[in-house]
Amino acid sequence: MNYLDFIVAVQKIGEVRGIPSVCSAHPWVLRTAMRQMAGGYLLVEATCNQVNQFGGYTGMTPVDFIAYVRGIARENDFPLEKLILGGDHLGPNVWQNETAESAMQKSLDMVRAYVQAGFTKIHLDASMKLADDAPGVLSPEIIARRTAQMAKAAETAAPDASQLRYVIGTEVPVPGGAQEREKTVSVTRVEDARQTIEVTKAAFHRVGLASAWERVLAVVVQPGVEFGDDFVLEYQPEAAKQLSAFIETVPHLVYEAHSTDYQTQTALRNLVQDHFTILKVGPALTFAFREAVFALGNVEKELFPAEVCSDVPQALNNAAMRRPEYWRKYYHGNSEEQAFKRKYSLSDRIRYYWTDAEVQEALDRLRENLGDRILPYSLLSQYVGNTNLNAAQVLEWKISQVLKVYQSACGK
């Protein structure tokens, strides 16, 4: 039985089970997740702007990403048969400034590239308006029609369409965190969730995808969670009570929750209890990596003269200032406030700069300086909060603390 089918099936009989979705291409995040999930299944997802047929911001096509993740799996003895690869927000998001004809053609090509490469969990998201769409809110029928078009492309291109599992709908939070501080977000109304499901099902059936509809396993809605550069809105079960009850009446469907980063273990467990079965997490994992690197930088400063230290924070800031497009619209305030956010924001836009050549050189120097030896107890106690670790173990430990919260919440 497909593992995602199993998770949905046990949810439907009342078991509190879920699965974390690791939305990151960072090698330390992926390596740690594979070690952490040893013996179980691991769901890794790539977004449409991160990986697409033109390379995305990672420079990787779907084939490249599959090879990259599977390569890390082999290096860490993680069984490929327990690695589930997903595509997130597949649709015209990257090409919103183009006409519907142009944007959708590229979306169809992207979906084909994903499924041909070997991705099997496919989130179809056609919720955004395109350049020549009529003024006003995009109708659910148009969104559903475009979603069905992409599903048709996936079904016809996949080596084995029976292996594909779909997620429909979109979330209110901006992927990667909100751009403005918010005090609350509106939980999706039951009538809106019902309409999304009904019109999308009808659109699938109109294009001859009745069997594919049976492989739609989740719908993305807003449960009331969000985070931004300096705030987290925690899940409130009472606010989503009706939404939770509704999905219990819908055969073979559960919810997928986006932007769950920085939620407490209790909040995440409550989400899974309320049928938000797939929990997306990304920035919180690279935030933990950044915390570990900065902590190691402090250890390094105590052990080595300034002229040989790596100064990774400065290298990151230099990279961010050279290419500000990844943070500028997220971080507001004066220059000092923006500088602080570039380092410490929960949105963790700094994650886009780890592959920069200057940053890589600084990281290499940090690792070379600290080596493989166990670092001094007093410095680890002061800066890390755990002891008897070398530098690599510090990096892995920090990331693993986030993953453990998700594992526990998901019933692992």
Which second-level CATH architecture of the largest domain applies? Alpha-Beta Barrel
CATH class label of the largest domain: Alpha Beta
Rg to the nearest angstrom?
A: 21 Å
Large-scale geometry: globular
| Total domains | 2
Q: How far apart, in Å, are the first and last alpha carbons? A: 18 Å
List the secondary-structure elements in sequence, H or E.
Answer: HEHEHEHEHEHHEEEHEHEHHHHHH
Give, in spatial order, the strands making up the sheet with the most strands: 1-2-3-4-5-6-9-10
Q: How many individual β-strands?
A: 10
Instruction: Compute the average pLDDT.
Output: 95
Helix content: 40-55%
CATH level-4 homologous superfamily of the largest domain: Aldolase class I
Which fold name is given in CATH as the topology of the largest domain? TIM Barrel
Provide the structure class. Answer: alpha/beta
Largest sheet: 8 strands, parallel, barrel
Count of helix runs = 15
Spans of at least 5 consecutive residues with low confidence: 173-179
Question: How big a fraction of the residues is strand?
Answer: 5-15%
